[in-house]
Amino acid sequence: MSDSDSEQEQRLTLEDLEGSDAEMLSGEEDDPLDILTTQRVTINNEPALKRLKEQIALPTDIPWSETQSITSTQPVSVADPDDDLNREVAFYNQALEAAVLGREKIKKEGGVFERPGDYFAEMIKSDEHMAKIRQKLLDENASIQASERAKAQRELKKFGKKVQTEKRLEREKAKADALEKINALKKKRQGNDNSTNADDEFDVALESDDEEMKAYKTVGQNGNKGKKRSASSTPESRGKRLKKDQKFGFGGKKRHSKSNTADSSADVSGFNVKRNKSTSFKAGHKAAKAGAKKRLGKSRRQGGGGRK
Amino acid sequence: MATVFKQQKTKRDKAEGIVANDAEEKAIFKNKQRVLLLSSRGITFRHRHLLSDLGNLLPHTKKDAKLDSKSKLHIINELADLNNCNNCIFFEVRKRQDLYMWVSKTPNGPSMKFHIQNIHTMEELKMTGNCLKGSRHILSFDKNFESSPHWMLMKELFTQVFGIPKTSRRIKPFIDHVISFSIVDNRVWFRNYQITQKPVEHRSATDTTDLTLVEIGPRFVMNPIRTFDGSFGGQTAFENPEFVSPNVARAKVRNAKAGRYKDRMEALAKRDQKMKDAVLPDDPLSEKNVFA
């Protein structure tokens, strides 16, 4: 309460804040004139209330159908009055119980409860109003369905998009892999021939037996339709092409093509045992030479013969 | 008209020497209730619709013109007498915002004043039920109405005012709907449901009965303020301690807002005073004192 002391002082010095009636309004329980009382005496005159009730009460022996009032068997108890759902459920249950009990009592007294289907009379709400209600319900349903459909479409689109991107990534990956393999092959070929030729950009694509390479060529370059090779282009008929590639492929192996490498020394394809044995310096040399096969000229030996 | 006819009849009977068979008439008690429905001036559209909804629901009511004065309510007793009504529901609207409902048994009986909140009229499209206009309904009261004398008196009053007597002229035969009063949070909640019977194929496993309820409306909440000895006046028999007048509630909110500014100014003034007061005592070793 020291606060109130200082407040008292404040009230004396702060003239402009005096006279505000905010302190007066501290709720209905405080009497403004007496700060000490916290509760006003409220009136609950129970004997008078009972007397009044007896004064106005209807006689108790009248049949139930005069008033048609039912008291519920269980008191309604709702934990939180702001909780709409539970509160309305409690009210609904109370009314439903009353309806059921009421029907029993009516039947006992011999009255009529149900309204027959063919009884038409003025209703509390007009037909136009009921039509409006019905329309609103239909609209609500329609909007819910429309939103659900839109949601489903959105999900489907997302899914479709996902599948599309996956496929695209797959294809790109395959392309990258194939290119890597080509580069690897390139480097391997170059390593074998010791070619210092750096003009790799102008290299023709390697023709290899690699299945993937073939797939890449047929799929990657021309879409899904690969260029089909005709039956006539077998390795045998492409001899000229093969020879040319051998000589001029990868820029042509100009240098060291006739030098003695390990491979060239080990190459014994030029040695024919029979010929060697027969063309040595022995008797019948001329005859052998005459009977021996004549060595072809340079150009024909190198496969240039047969040129059109 | 009815009373005039009755007066003539009794006069004629007396003249002709016919003694009314009191015993027979006493045995058949006829519950006769008529309710006068009126409002004060300054009523808003929502309150007007609520009043007309009550008028449609209760066929034993009679609507009357708006009452001019808000202070001299005792004239309602005379109005009720003029209209042969022994009950009255009066809607008092204050500041065109707050609705107070008086339920009273004219001319001598007790009366009760309520503050009405959360009004939803029958027009609202969320309430899909419908019923016969003038069918006698079932009244459903919460068990809490038997807990205190003031609740019991309220229940009796509601039974007579909201319950439709058999003698009313505009009633229809069947029982269509049920009106329920429940006590939650020291207030009375009013609900009106239509009773429908579900065909067997639509019943689910959790249903205990074949009856279902659909809300018709209107719905409102009554906050009891006072109970008076007489009609529209007299001694207070009961006063609700938890009732906060809507004016006071609004004033509190406004003052809280104003209070913020006021508190801040007060705090500033306090601080100034504190700074003024908080002056250090003269230090004997300070320059001023040493080199005086």
UniProtKB/TrEMBL annotation, chain A:
Pfam families, alphabetized: Ebp2 (PF05890)
Bias type Basic residues, positions: 283-308
Compartment(s) where it occurs, according to its Swiss-Prot or TrEMBL record: Nucleus, Nucleolus
GO cellular component, one term: nuclear periphery
Region annotation Disordered: where it falls in the sequence: 1-33, 184-308
A biological process term (GO) from this entry: ribosomal large subunit biogenesis
Domain of life where this protein originates: Eukaryota
Principal subcellular localisation of the protein: nucleus
This protein's UniProt keywords: Coiled coil, Nucleus, Ribosome biogenesis
Alphabetical list of InterPro entries matching this protein: Ebp2
UniProt feature, compositional bias: Acidic residues: 15-33, 198-212
Protein family membership: Belongs to the EBP2 family.
Name of this chain's protein: rRNA-processing protein and EBNA1-binding protein ebp2
Species in which this protein is naturally found: Entomortierella chlamydospora
Recorded name of the encoding gene: EBP2_1
Automatic annotation (TrEMBL), chain B:
Keyword Methyltransferase: no
PROSITE patterns attached to this UniProt entry: BRIX
Transmembrane segments: none
Subcellular locations according to the entry: Nucleus, Nucleolus
InterPro entries: Brix (IPR007109), BRX1 (IPR026532)
Gene Ontology terms: cellular component: nucleolus
Entry keyword Lipid biosynthesis: no
Keywords, comma-separated and alphabetical: Nucleus, Ribosome biogenesis
Molecular-function GO terms, alphabetical: rRNA binding
GO biological process, alphabetically ordered: ribosomal large subunit assembly; rRNA processing
Pfam family membership, one: Brix
Chain intervals for the UniProt region annotation (Disordered): 272-292
Domain Brix: 33-233
Family according to the record: Belongs to the BRX1 family.
PANTHER family cross-referenced by the UniProt entry: RIBOSOME BIOGENESIS PROTEIN BRIX (PTHR13634), RIBOSOME BIOGENESIS PROTEIN BRX1 HOMOLOG (PTHR13634:SF0)
The protein's name in its UniProt record: Ribosome biogenesis protein brx1
